[in-house]
Known about the structure:
By secondary structure, this protein is an alpha/beta fold. The chain is 52% helix and 17% strand. It contains nine helices and eight strands. Strands 2-6-1-7-8 form a five-stranded parallel beta sheet, with helices on both faces. A three-stranded antiparallel beta sheet has the order 3-4-5, covered by helices on one side. The structure holds 2'-deoxycytidine-5'-monophosphate.
Amino acid sequence: MAGIAIDGPAGAGKSTIAKKVAKELDFVYVDTGALYRAIAHYLVTNKIDIEKDEVLSKACEEITVAIEYENSVQQVYLNGENVTPYLRTEETGNMASKSSAKAPVRAALLDLQRDMAKQYNVVMDGRDIGTNVLPDAEVKIYLTASSKERAGRRYKELVEKGEKSDFDRIEADIIERDERDMNRAIAPLKQAEDAVLVDSSDMGIDEVVDTILSIVRDRIQ
Ligand code: DC
C-alpha cells in the first residue's frame, strides 16, 4: 500500500486538492479533519468541558469513530450514526481546533487513520499526517498559502453562498487557528523534514494538482 500525506494550515485547499489527486491516482481520499470534527460534534452536543481532563478522557472512551465510503465520498460515523452533515459548521470547526490539541482526542483517532493506510492506497490530508500518523508515507506534501490568500478564498466562498462576511474577521480567525494548530504541545502542524513545500498562493487548483501528481509520479510510479 502507498500513502500520500498532505498537511497544511486551514484554508490552504488541502481537501479540494487531495480529492482530485486521489481521483487521478485511483487512491482512497481520507479527510482526517472530519474525524476531529466528528469528535468535536460529540463534545459540543454533550456539552463536555474539554478543560477537565477526566471528563474528556471518559468522553473519548465512549466515542467510536468509523469511516465508510458512499459513492466514493467519505462518510464519518460516530457511535454508529452518520454525522457527516453536521461537521462543516463554524462551531464544530472551532471546537475541533481546540479539542484536537488534547491527548485523549488524538489517541482516539490514531489507529483508525493508520488502519486506513494499511488497507488502502491513500491520499490523507490533515495536520500531522507526514510528521506523526504516517511517518513512512511515500510522498509528503506541505500545502500552504498566505493568510490573505486563504482568507480571500473563504470570503469568496461565503459571498457566493449569499452569506454576509467580513474579510478582516475571516483573516483574523485563520491566523488564530494557525497559531493554535502550530503551537500545541502534541502533534503540532509543521512541515515534515522530508515533505515538499507547495505554496499555492499564486497557483490555480489544476496547477497545484499537476505539481503534486508529478512529485508522486517521480517517487512511486
Ligand atoms: O482540516 P479541518 O479544518 O477539517 O480540521 C479541523 C481541525 O482539526 C483543525 O483545526 C485541526 C484539527 N486537525 C488535526 O489536529 N489533525 C489533523 N490531522 C486534522 C485536523
